[in-house]
Amino acid sequence: MQKTICHDRGDGMTNETSSRTHGFQNHEDIHYRFCPVCGHALETQVIKSLEPERSVCRRCGYVVYPNPKVAVGTLGTLDGKIILLKRGIEPAYGRWVFPGGYVDRGETVEAAGIRETKEEVNLDVKIESLLNVYSYQGRPVIVIVYAVRVIGGDLRAGDETIDVGTFGPEEIPWQELAFPSTGDALREYINRYLPSEL
């Protein structure tokens, strides 16, 4: 059984992590408790009738607007087969996904996709085209996925990756994929770039 730990991060926010995922921030579970401007306790209230409840500081009037996180992924092939990795971190530990991760503030999404691919599977890639942008009701992450061409490197697992592999469409472990966007992007990529394999 995993032990759940509640961390006070020292910035007015808390988040829960498990013992296996120390350091991972689950962006769905982060809640502001104190105003980041004046330090006063926040209260929940409806500001506009058509919007959700917001965390508001009664002392200085600051309103917390939680923004979505932006992630980027890349889909490409080696010898005609799609490159996937098995995640070595939460969320979705041990499940399959294409290379990707969060975009750093000030970083272009294209640069983030190239960087994440190198970090996770040791491949150098060139972006060919935008595959699609995926977002889901109730989920805080927007996923941008690019179709890429491999231009260098040797396929191997990075430090946040358990395993790597290449898969034909019929070989993809569809029941072991990490996220809704993983399956949606894979299906779109196959239909667009590998239709003869169906």
Key words describing this protein structure:
14% helix; 2 helices; four-stranded antiparallel β-sheet; Nucleoside Triphosphate Pyrophosphohydrolase; four-stranded mixed β-sheet; 198 residues; 2 domains
Can you tell me about this structure?
- With 198 residues, the protein is mainly beta.
- The chain has two helices and 14 strands; from the N terminus they run E-E-E-E-E-E-E-E-E-E-E-H-E-E-E-H.
- The strands form four sheets. It has a four-stranded mixed beta sheet with strand order 11-7-13-12, sandwiched between helices.
- The termini are far apart.
Report the top-level CATH class of the largest domain: Alpha Beta
Gyration radius from CA atoms, angstroms? 19 Å
What's the average pLDDT? 87
Strand content: 35-45%
Please provide the count of β strands: 14
Parts with pLDDT < 50 across at least 5 consecutive residues: 1-25
Helix and strand element order:
EEEEEEEEEEEHEEEH
Total of helices: 2
What is the CATH topology classification name of the largest domain? Nucleoside Triphosphate Pyrophosphohydrolase
In short:
By secondary structure, this protein is mainly beta. 14% of the residues lie in helices and 38% in strands.
Please outline the helices and strands:
Elements: E1 4-8, E2 13-18, E3 31-32, E4 42-45, E5 54-57, E6 63-64, E7 69-75, E8 77-78, E9 81-87, E10 96-97, E11 100-102, H1 109-121, E12 123-134, E13 141-153, E14 161-167, H2 180-193
Parallel strand pairs: 7-13
Antiparallel strand pairs: 1-2, 2-3, 4-5, 5-6, 7-11, 8-9, 9-10, 9-14, 12-13
